[in-house]
Specification:
The complex is a heterodimer of chains A (about 325) and B (about 500). Chain A has a single domain, classed as ABC transporter involved in vitamin B12 uptake, BtuC (Orthogonal Bundle). In chain A, helix 3 runs parallel beside helix 9 and helix 4 packs across helix 12. The longest helix of chain A has 28 residues. Chain A is globular and about 55 Å long. Helix content of chain A is about 70%, strand content about 5%. Chain A has 15 helices and four strands. With about 325 residues, chain A is mainly alpha-helical. In chain A, the strands form two sheets. Chain A has a two-stranded antiparallel ribbon with strand order 1-4. In chain A, strands 2-3 form a two-stranded antiparallel sheet. Chain B starts with 12 loop residues before the first strand and ends with a helix. Chain B has 18 helices and 22 strands. Chain B has a six-stranded mixed beta sheet with strand order 6-9-10-3-11-12, with helices on both faces. In chain B, strands 18-19-20-15-21-22 form a six-stranded mixed beta sheet, with helices on both faces. Chain B has a four-stranded antiparallel beta sheet with strand order 2-1-4-5, covered by helices on one side. In chain B, about 35% of the residues lie in helices and about 25% in strands. The longest helix of chain B is centred in the middle third of the chain and has 16 residues. The chains are: A mainly alpha (about 325), B alpha/beta (about 500). The interface between A and B is large, with 32 and 45 residues.
Chain lengths: ~325, ~500
Amino acid sequence: MANVATEPAKAPKTSKDWDMAAVAPFIALALLLVLGYFANPNFMTSANLLNVVTRSSFIAVIALGATYVITSGGLDLSVGAMLAFVASLMILFLNSGTVADPALALVAGMALAIAIGAVCGLANGLITTVGRIEPFIATLGTMGIYRGLTTWLSQGGAITVRDRDILALYRPVYSGSFIGVPIPIIVIFVTAAIAAFVLYRTRYGRHVTAVGSNEDVARYSGISINRVRTVTYVIQGLCVAVAVLLYVPRLGSTSATTGSFWELQAITAVVVGGTALRGGVGRIWGTICGAFILEIVGNIMLLSNFVSEYLIGAIQGAIIIIAMLVQRSLMRR
Amino acid sequence: MSSVEASPAVPLFEATGLSKTFGIVEVLKDININVRAGEVHAIIGENGAGKSTLMKIIAGNLAPTRGEMRIDGEAVTFSGPVDAEHRGIVLVHQEILLAPDLTVAQNIYLGRELHKGVFIDDRAMNEGAAKAVRGLGSDIDPNTIVSRLSIAQRQLVQIARVLLVPHRIVIFDEPTASLTPHETDALLKVIRQIRAKGVGVLYISHRLPEVKEIADRVTVLRDGRLVASHDVSELQPADMARLMVGRDVAKLYPDRHAAEARETVLEVEHLNVPGYAQDASFQLKKGEILGFAGLVGAGRTELMEGMVGLRTSRGTVRHLGKPVNFRDVHASLKAGIVYLSEDRKGKGLLLTKDLIVNLTLASLGKFIGALQIDRKRESDALDKAIRDFDIRTGRKDILAGQLSGGNQQKLLLAKMMLLDPSIVIIDEPTRGIDIGNKEQIYKFIAKLAEEGRSIIVVSSEMPELIGICDRILVMRSGRIVGEVTGDHMNENEIVVLATGVNKEEAA
């Protein structure tokens, strides 16, 4: 019985070798920090860095949800519009005066935002799974719906928190800090830790990866593909809602253009972080790293005088292409 | 076809001493075969007998390891299929290779479009296509989109496309595998027309009645060797079956005690899987190994998939006396029924994930600690699986795709056995697996039955079914057409049932 377990002719590629793809975004982040250090002495100050990371919090948290959707083999283009929609409804609720006490009103508003986010995500999930419409098309549709509803709610203008008490109470959620760390940064790491735990340590997380890796294998193993996929969209909706909770206290206002193109930034962060766009490989901390990279690139461009900051979009576009090329070359090795 | 009439002494095509080796496996050994102008020469043999390899060599897709080929007595070698085509040898593939969204004419002329200046000459192509299709005795409109055609019509278009090339030898690779009897008749008529034009036809099939009907000569392959070559008038389908089979079975199979009469664990009554299986009824007893034999496409896999909730099915399935209707695999797994797909790489294992993830995927619930997956328990389970199923792997952190076929099958078996099922359905348990691993897998199957589990084995390898099963059901064209037990469990009787040669004819 001359039976060899592996084929030595093909270079053995073990699960260890894939780690390179996981490490790559962190190397890129480190290189960017070095670059920033040389570009402008103000870059490496804690004030600047904390500020940059704080500003990345919206995309980072949204991208955590996108990591789930993409890992399971889906895509959600509606997140930017969803953020604007959920934020608008939340502010309208706060302005409605349904709850008199400012603190209670705020808690109720936040709970409402979470609920609406979950429902919006559920809608996306059911349309793609039960309705069996391609995620790209389904969420392109809901993107239009959420954006259109926001425009209609704001009548083309802005929706602003009117109650000063509530705003005063709410502001610290974005601008405050806890033992020296801005709250949005704490939110990033806490949500990422939860997301990582669920994706890597629980049965559901394993199922998400399996469904994205090979739908048939998952189905033949008794996994409900539709349920797993639908829940990823609900998780995405919850993440958008958490981003709303951080976004509203920042300006206390939304408009028809709030969150424009954030879906593309979120997808960029996910892909730059090493998650496979075709599904099956999800990297939570890579996604966070990707979100940081996007924000830091913008920051360096602002601080240095080499490149006009108006080119930020172009640079971010180039980053996603480079990230894909690097990912592919690491996998083909 | 402006071919010079070759003198009868020199065959149109002749191959001598053809051999083909893949690695250390010799899949074809010393084959001599020829085709004369104006004859249909059938090549028959079981799955894996080497028919496809031989055809690929003749059509230029593969180079022979040894041996030579002659056209009109002149030695030739082919650099590829296009080269063989230039020499007048064309192959009609078994699968339909057409672009479903293009029209008949567009498909027939795909890659060799007719032009009028810089524009595509649709009118000329439509006329040419209409003529080509009419030549095959059909009136399909060349403007029809291919996806609207029936399988038989598509096949006709495919043949028309192949015959557009100037040709002297046409190879048909199991052309009737997916056709109804009526459609088969129509196809055979087309082949007769082609033959009448002085073309040599090589016809591969394992449907013996149809070979008897169409062929002038028959060559039988078995295990890569040519075992017989006769004029068709000298052979009856039953003789062909005997020649195809007739191999002595080595001591590959475990000794089994005939299962005594025990309680029935699964009863299937009038189960229909639309499009694949009709009116299937059978029973499975505790501790029994039940085989499902039949040709490829007989509906065996689909029947099993319908039973476990992977496909929609109608009918009655009683599990331990209670009627069940599994809506998805989750439900059938819960009932203790597992199905191991024939498509190990596509539906069985996550090839890019490690062994642990694959092993525990279907039974993760058993590995949940307080909140999270207990990795220690998973790792212990892998150690146990490696021991119990003798999975040969140097390291435990490799990916499932890096295991050999045999070890993948063992891993899949281990994965499903973690669910501790009472009924195990294994589809093509040893496809693509070397002989050593085969023997082990047979032992595992026998052991599972001894433990009181009931096993269904679906296989296209008859010796394997005969070697390990207590009873074999034979399917043909979506129906269970017979059962063989005891002394009747021989390849001859199974082939007779599976191919539809009736008993009187065979006697």
